[in-house]
């Protein structure tokens, strides 16, 4: 349904626009205002979408308007993904601010030219959205609040779990992580391994893949897998760690001191593996308050952190993060064939179309999925 998709896309765009940090856009001097303007425009349109949804049932004109809006929002989403990819690449270059600016300016992907191009594209998207917004006035659409229980904003990321016994194209990544987990000698009892990469690259799947390896199961006395996602609440995280360790949720009436005692009693002196999946929190103090509760493990304990943010990776661990890259062309094609064609023979025309699709996916497994 175009109307529901439009609302979800609008909210997702606003979330993405709000997530860009100053460090990500700092070198692109003309982009920040454009991003702020785009966010304001999308927010204005989002406010009338509930009214548009209801009226589209009886009005073909409103339904067509929603279809046009959906197309523009998809284009805007693609543009922001491109921006996120470039910002992520910029972060990975490292170095201090001056050397980073010099390196980026003289790189093959000149950032001055990139910022001008990005600014033009954002302005073009905004102009299309502004036109669509003006058309909404012809329908006399009114601002209405979407009930909280159906709002996209209340939908949390699907809770991840520990099961994953095989994934295409990640054998080398798995081998590298197994060395860090099973062979590397750390000075710290509890060694933290961040896996960082863009959304959809398969960080969670890789963590599950490693977690379920038989050597890993035999190496650790205690294994726990917890999805953190966007709400970094230490009490909730501790409750979920205890639940993963024991198979039972702790009493909801327990205070933090009691939960801490339970957690220490469970992990204290044991060589454990804990996966903290999908961390977004960039506040060092909040991370430290959780880490202090986890350092009681025996020598050889490991914590795997998956995150999209290089800053999160740096906050959670002193070690070099494991940066996950896109799939190779061959692995991407293998995955695409498995999903799209299963065991059927492939028409040569479909092969050509499939490989054109792969070029746009850039090796991101999530984009190749169903």
Automatic annotation (TrEMBL):
The keyword ATP-binding applies. One of its GO terms (biological process) is defense response. GO terms for molecular function: ADP binding; ATP binding. Residues 179-344 form the NB-ARC domain. Keywords: ATP-binding, Nucleotide-binding, Plant defense, Repeat. InterPro entries: NB-ARC (IPR002182), P-loop_NTPase (IPR027417), Rx_N (IPR041118). Gene3D superfamilies: 1.20.5.4130, P-loop containing nucleotide triphosphate hydrolases. Residues 13-96 form the Disease resistance N-terminal domain. This is Disease resistance protein RGA2.
